[in-house]
Design goal:
The complex is a heterodimer of chains A (about 270) and B (about 425). In chain A, about 15% of the residues lie in helices and about 50% in strands. Chain A is mostly beta strands and about 270 residues long. Chain A has one domain. The longest helix of chain A has 17 residues. The radius of gyration of chain A is 19 Å and the shape is globular. Chain B is an alpha/beta fold and about 425 residues long. Chain B has 2 domains: about 375 residues, no CATH class; about 55 residues, no CATH class. In chain B, strands 3, 4, 6, 7, 9, 10, 12, 13, 15, 16, 18, 20 and 22 form a 13-stranded mixed β-sheet that branches. Chain B is globular, with a radius of gyration of 21 Å. The termini of chain B are far apart. Classes of the chains: A mainly beta (about 270), B alpha/beta (about 425). At the A-B interface, strand 14 and strand 15 of A face strand 22 and strand 23 of B.
C-alpha cells in the first residue's frame, strides 16, 4: 500500500449542514492518500485526528476495510472526509463508530468506477447532551454490475441531533448494478431531532435500488416483555443502544480491532 | 382585494425564481398573458347556453356526459373564467354550496371566503404563490355544511385554450364538522409552440371529523409549466385523502401539503407520475404532523420513459407536539429505458421520540419474465408492457371512480405507444 501525505484539498464543505460555518480547519486538515495495487488487501484502523481527508484509490481486485472511531472524549469538532475510487472488482468497506463529540461531520463518497466493484458502509452512533452529527454517504455507480450497501443505525438521547443524507446514484451505463440503503434510529428523548434524507438517483434502466428507514421509540411490546423479566425501561434502552453499536463492531473483519473498540465503548459508559 | 393583489405583485417582483428543481428557463413571464376572457358574457348554469366552440371542446373531453352519469356537480373553466357551473338539486338541498369563487366573494359567504382566502398559501410562500395572489381569476368555492355527506363527487375541469396564456384559478373548499366530500379536478390544454403557465392554488379546510378526498388527473399539454400549489389543513379527527395522477406538462412542481393540526387528524396521499419525452415532472407531497396521534400514509409510483425525468420529492415533519403520531412513506419508481431519469428525494424531520416513522423506496425496471409470460399468452410486447405499467399504477386507479380510472389507463396506454425499440 502506498501512503502519501498531501496538501489539504480546497474543500468547499458544501455537504455540511447549514449553519455549520466554514470551519476554521483549512490549515489543520491532514490529507492522506492511500493507493492499493491490484489484489492487495488491508484493514485500517484510524482514530479521529480532528480533521482529516482521505483519498483512496483501489486497484483491480484490491480490498480495503477502513475502521474509523470517534470517541466521546475526543476533540469538540471532527471533520472526516473519505473519497474512494474503486477499480474493477475492488471492494471498499467503511466502518464508522461515533460514540459522541460535540460536532461531527462525516462524508464518505465512493465512486464504483470499475466493473463489479462494491462498497459497504456500516455506520453507528450514540449521541446525547447537545451533540450533533452530520453524515453524508454516497455510492456512485458508474461501472457495470457494481454493488453498494449503506447501513446506518444509532441512538439519540437528550437534545442530540443528527442529519443523515445517504445517496445511491446510478449513472448511465452502470447496468446490472444494485444499491441498498437502510437506516434505523432509536429516539430516547422528547427533545432529540432526527433528519434523514435517503436519496436514490437513477439514469440507468437495468438497476435495482432499495431504501428502508425506521425511526422512532423503542417498541412498547418489547419494553413490556423486558419489564416482565425484571429489566426496567432505562436498562432496556441501554441494552438496545449497546446492541446497535455492537451490531456494527461485529462486522469489522479483524477481531483485535473489534476488541479495541469494545474496550473504548465500555470506557465511555 | 386590489390591495392584496398589489401587495402580492410586489412580493412576486422581489422573490427569486426557485433554483432547486427542474429548469424553468423556458418560461418568460413577459410573454405570459395572465388573463384571457373566454368568448362568453357570463357563467352559465344550463349547458345549452354555453357558446358552441367552448361547448364542443368540453363535449370532446366528455365533461357533460360525466356530469349526467357520475357527478353531483360540475364547474368548467375555459381560460381565465368559469363558463359553466351546475350542482344537482339534491346536493344543493343538503346546503352544499358549489359556485365560482368570484361571485361567491360578493354573496353571503363573502366573509367566510375572506377569512380563508390565501391563508393556507400566503403570497410569501413562494414566487408563484405571489403571482397567483396578484393575478388569480376563476376557480371554485365549495362549502359542505356540518354533517352533510355528498355521496357522489363534485368536479371542476380546467381547460386552457389560448396559446401563451396562464391559468391562475383558485379553489377553496371548506368541509365543515363531520361532513364528507369527494372533489375531482381535471385539467387539459392543446399543445402550442409557446410556453403556457398554470399557477393555480388549492386551499382545503377539513373540519373536525370531516373527510375530504381530492382527486386530480392532470393532463396538461407538453408545453405547460405546471407550478400549482395545493394545501390542506385538517382539524381534530378529520381526514384528507389526495389522489393524484400527473401525466401532462413540460415541467411540473407539484407537492400537495397537508397540515395535520388537530388531534387524530389523518392524511393519505396516493400518487402516480408518468414522465415521457420532453417532460420533467417534479412531484411529491409534504405532511406536517403538528398535533398528537396524527397519522399519514404516502404511497406513490413514478414511471419514466423516452427521456422523461420524474422526481419524487417528499417531506414528513413531526413536530414536538405530535406525540403518538405515525407516518409511513412508500415510493416506487419504474425505469422504462436508459435515456430517462428517475430520482427519489424524501426528507424526514422528526422532533419527538413519541412517534414512529417508516420509509421505503424502490427503483427498478419491468421484469423480462413478466413480459415474456404475457407474450406467451398472446399479447404483443407493447401491450404486455402497457399492462404491466397499468398494474404498477393501480394504487391510484383503484382509488378513482370507474370512469376516471378508465381514463387514466387510457392515458397510460397512449403514453406507452411506441415504447418498444
Amino acid at each position: 500500500m502506498e501512503i502519501t501525505v498531501n496538501k489539504p484539498l480546497a474543500e468547499t464543505f458544501g455537504w455540511l449542514q447549514t449553519g455549520a460555518k466554514r470551519i476554521d480547519l483549512q490549515d489543520k486538515i491532514q490529507n492522506i492518500s492511500y493507493v492499493l495495487g491490484p489484489g492487495e488487501s488491508r484493514v485500517l484502523f484510524l482514530e479521529d485526528p480532528g480533521a482529516s481527508e482521505y483519498e483512496i484509490t483501489l486497484g483491480e481486485g484490491a480490498r480495503l476495510d477502513m475502521v474509523q472511531l470517534r470517541e466521546a472524549s475526543g476533540k469538540d469538532l471532527s471533520y472526516n472526509n473519505v473519497r474512494v475510487t474503486c477499480g474493477d472488482k475492488a471492494y471498499f468497506g467503511w466502518y464508522r463508530v461515533v460514540l459522541g463529540g460535540a460536532e461531527s461531520y462525516d462524508n464518505c463518497s465512493v465512486n464504483l468506477a470499475g466493473r463489479e466493484s462494491s462498497f459497504t458502509a456500516n455506520v453507528c452512533y450514540r449521541l446525547d447532551g447537545t451533540e450533533k452529527y452530520d453524515l453524508n454517504c454516497e455510492a456512485i455507480h458508474t461501472g457495470k454490475r457494481t454493488e453498494s450497501a449503506i447501513s446506518a443505525s444509532g441512538v439519540l438521547a437528550d437534545k442530540a441531533s443528527k442529519l443523515m443524507r445517504g445517496t445511491i446514484d446510478f449513472r448511465t451505463g452502470c447496468s446490472g448494478s444494485v444499491g441498498n440503503e437502510t437506516e434505523d434510529v432509536l429516539l430516547l428523548s422528547e427533545e432529540v431531532r432526527n433528519q434523514s434524507v435517503p436519496v436514490i438517483l437513477c439514469s440507468e434502466e437495468d438497476v435495482v435500488g432499495n431504501h428502508g428507514a425506521s425511526i422512532g421509540r423503542p417498541d412498547e411490546d418489547m419494553l413490556f416483555y423486558m419489564e416482565t423479566r425484571g429489566v426496567d425501561e432505562e436498562t432496556a434502552c441501554e441494552m438496545l443502544a449497546r446492541a446497535k453499536i455492537d451490531s456494527v463492531i461485529r462486522k469489522i473483519p479483524d477481531a483485535s480491532i473489534q476488541e479495541k473498540i469494545r474496550a473504548r465503548v465500555q470506557r465511555g459508559e | 382585494m386590489l390591495e392584496f393583489r398589489l401587495r402580492s405583485l410586489d412580493i412576486f417582483a422581489k422573490t427569486e425564481m426557485p433554483n432547486w428543481g427542474p429548469s424553468i428557463e423556458g418560461l418568460n413571464m413577459d410573454n405570459i398573458v395572465t388573463y384571457v376572457r373566454p368568448n362568453t358574457e357570463r357563467m352559465h348554469t344550463d349547458w345549452n347556453d354555453v357558446p358552441e366552440d367552448i361547448k364542443n371542446t368540453f363535449e370532446r373531453l366528455g365533461i357533460p356526459q360525466s356530469e349526467r352519469e357520475s357527478l353531483a356537480g360540475v364547474g368548467a373553466q375555459y381560460d381565465s373564467e368559469l363558463v359553466y357551473h351546475n350542482v344537482r338539486k339534491e346536493v344543493a338541498e343538503q346546503g352544499v354550496i358549489y359556485t365560482d369563487l368570484e361571485s361567491a366573494l360578493r354573496g353571503e359567504y363573502a366573509d367566510m371566503i375572506r377569512f380563508h382566502f390565501m391563508k393556507l398559501v400566503p403570497p410569501e410562500d413562494h414566487k408563484f404563490a405571489a403571482l397567483h395572489g396578484a393575478v388569480w381569476s376563476g376557480g371554485s368555492f365549495v362549502y359542505v355544511p356540518p354533517g352533510a355527506d355528498v355521496e357522489i363527487p363534485l368536479q371542476s375541469y380546467f381547460r386552457l385554450n389560448a396559446p401563451g396564456a396562464g391559468q391562475f384559478e383558485h379553489t377553496l373548499i371548506i368541509v365543515d364538522k363531520g361532513a364528507r366530500l369527494h372533489f375531482i379536478e381535471g385539467c387539459s390544454a392543446p399543445k402550442y409552440n409557446v410556453a403556457n403557465l398554470h399557477a393555480g392554488c388549492v386551499e382545503l379546510f377539513v373540519g373536525e371529523d370531516a373527510t375530504l378526498r381530492y382527486s386530480t388527473i392532470e393532463n396538461w399539454s407538453k408545453n405547460m409549466y405546471n407550478l400549482n400549489t395545493k394545501r390542506a389543513k385538517v382539524e381534530k379527527g378529520g381526514k384528507i385523502e389526495w389522489v393524484s395522477g400527473s401525466f401532462g406538462s413540460h415541467v411540473s412542481y407539484l407537492y400537495p401539503m397537508s397540515v395535520l393540526a388537530g388531534k387524530g387528524a389523518r392524511c393519505e396521499f396516493t400518487g402516480v407520475t408518468f414522465a415521457g419525452a420532453g417532460q420533467n415532472l417534479d412531484t411529491g407531497c409534504k405532511v406536517v404532523h403538528n398535533a398528537p396521534d396524527t397519522s399519514s400514509y404516502v404511497n406513490t409510483r413514478s414511471i419514466s420513459k423516452s427521456g422523461g425525468i420524474s422526481t419524487f420529492r417528499s417531506a414528513v415533519v413531526v413536530s414536538s407536539k405530535a406525540h403518538g403520531s405515525k407516518s409511513s412513506v412508500s415510493c416506487e419508481s419504474l425505469m422504462l429505458d436508459s435515456e430517462s431519469r428517475s430520482d427519489t428525494i424524501p426528507a424526514m424531520d422528526i422532533r419527538t421520540n413519541k412517534a414512529d416513522v417508516g420509509h421505503e423506496a424502490k427503483i427498478g425496471r419491468i421484469s423480462d419474465e413478466a413480459v415474456f409470460y404475457l407474450m406467451s399468452r398472446g399479447l404483443s410486447e407493447e401491450e404486455a408492457k402497457a399492462l404491466i405499467v397499468s398494474g404498477f399504477a393501480e394504487n391510484v386507479s383503484k382509488e378513482l371512480p370507474l370512469e376516471y380510472a378508465v381514463e387514466m389507463n387510457n392515458l397510460i396506454r397512449i403514453e406507452m405507444k411506441g415504447a418498444i425499440g
